[in-house]
Design brief:
alpha/beta; Rossmann fold; five-stranded parallel beta sheet; 5 strands
């Protein structure tokens, strides 16, 4: 099956990856398809349990089964170099959100939703991290069984460091979450993927608005900002470079 383009959305979860999949709904597009297989490939490659050639073969098999034009799967954002080598003619849309807003959304989502297919991913990238709780956020463990604030921000920084350093510059466009419903940004995205602007659908899905509990509510914005500024250097640089 011929593709008009071969695109991946590699932003972190809760940065608009679902909105991107919906934006490209007039093409063959999906949000986080085959999550168990995708997560297994990413985790085992990250742990160096998969050799690059084996991981590439698995990615190609997955891609052959899906035949997508836009694959919005945020775990693939942890392996951008491998992805670019596997699919050298692909293009990458990197969504990014300010850490302050992102961490609130991410915590609320983790508290509300725990799909079995995502448990190994959360264990590997979140719960296995070395960061500890402070006196300000230890309630996240006792009340909500969530990771420390610094762990959330550390994962965010790690993903955007990889994306910044390993994604081919001429194959990527970086877009702020809040710009995804903006006509100017959509025109830039359409131009980048060489598709008609009228074929993209304005869509900004935000499932977190439906979640009732905000586990970050006992943390002040000033404190989250201080920790973000201390940890999220590359993520903030990516944010300020985005359209």
């Amino acid at each position: 099956m011929n593709r008009k383009f071969h695109g991946f959305c590699l932003g972190s979860g809760k940065t608009g990856t679902a909105s991107v999949a919906s934006m490209f709904q007039r093409f063959r597009s999906a949000h986080e398809p085959m999550p168990a297989l995708t997560n297994q490939i990413v985790i085992e490659y990250d742990k160096q349990d998969l050799k690059p050639n084996v991981a590439q073969r698995l990615l190609r098999c997955r891609d052959d089964d899906l035949q997508l034009e836009m694959d919005a799967s945020h775990p693939l954002g942890f392996i951008p170099k491998l992805l670019a080598r596997t699919f050298p003619n692909s293009k990458f849309l990197i969504t990014v959100r300010h850490p302050l807003e992102w961490v609130k959304s991410r915590m609320a989502y983790h508290l509300a939703v725990d799909p079995p297919a995502w448990r190994p991913f959360r264990q590997h990238f979140w719960r296995n991290r070395p960061e500890d709780y402070s006196i300000h956020d230890e309630y996240l463990a006792t009340t909500y069984h969530l990771c420390p604030l610094d762990a959330y921000l550390g994962v965010y920084e790690e993903q955007y460091t990889r994306l910044w350093n390993e994604t081919p510059y001429d194959q990527a466009i970086i877009v702020k979450t809040e710009s995804l419903s903006n006509s100017h940004a959509l025109k830039k995205i359409a131009q980048f993927f060489e598709v008609p602007y009228k074929h993209l659908v304005k869509s900004h899905l935000n499932k977190t608005n439906k979640l009732r509990v905000d586990p970050s509510s006992l943390l002040t914005d000033d404190y989250i900002m201080d920790r973000s500024n201390a940890i999220c250097h590359r993520a903030l640089e990516t944010y300020h470079a985005a359209i």
